[in-house]
Amino acid sequence: MASADQLKALLDSFVERDDQRFFSVAMQVAAHEARLGHGKLAEELRAVIDDAKRRRGAASPVPIARPRGDLAHLLEVSYPASRLGQMVLAPELEGQLTRVLREQRHAGRILEHGLTPRRKLLLVGPPGTGKTLTASVLAGELGLPLFQIRLDGLITKMLGETAAKLRQVFDATGQTRGVYFFDEFDAIGSQRGLTNDVGEIRRVLNSFLKMIEQDHSNSLILAATNHGQILDPALLRRFDDVLHYELPSQKQVAELLRSRLGPLAIQGTPWTKLARLASGLSHAEVTRAGDEALKEALIAERLPLREADIRATLQERQRAAARLGRKG
Known about the structure:
By secondary structure, this protein is α/β, with parallel strands linked by helices. The protein contains 15 helices and six strands.
């Protein structure tokens, strides 16, 4: 049962139309019920809250949660509608994400038995392989806001200031349930023994290790990096799961092109043949190539898409990758 203070806070926030505070207090009530062993009730409360957030977000352009004060310079908020079905993933990775979603949706049952659902995830892999999209998908599937941490606002030259800002971010995870996404995480997570490391970054990493270990909020915390090999080994113990992203296989490229362009392409388009032209390209580059082919066809009023249209944009992406001296 909600405490007297929680009931007052719920009523006050309702009268003041402070959605952020209302949902935060409601989640505190759900967490309290879970700790009391009322797992089913806690799960039902969280489902109602998540559904209310989703409906409120769809009905109004006003954000449910908007970072204020100093947090406005640290967090960028969005409300994705992305779904897992939009991603083309290796079976193992898809299974890991499905497990995260299942555990989050049945968190009450898990908490009731003294366990915790997966919510601290490290995403490792080359650029353009779906790490950022994963953050959007988890937020969209769970009906939560996505908070992207702005590293330009977080990392400063002032001694101790970065750690203080990091504390603000972790405080926010307990106040507003959401998906908190640290992109390019190697900027603060690199090994403490690297020769080009500086004292401030070492202190920031130590602070992050301590804060993520002590974080017991209901939010999801995601950290993504293109350079997993330089991360400090101590980080791995702080995350519930490490998700590895790879460049797409030929089969995955064919499926990605088919799912994105199939309804607008000529029947019998040889997707597998086209996929061979995308060898070494990332998910993001294949997606951009498909979008470029579609835009060109729309401008030229030439639908349905032809094989030659798609081939041309894939080859253009390959040439761009070659000029940069890389693939993906």
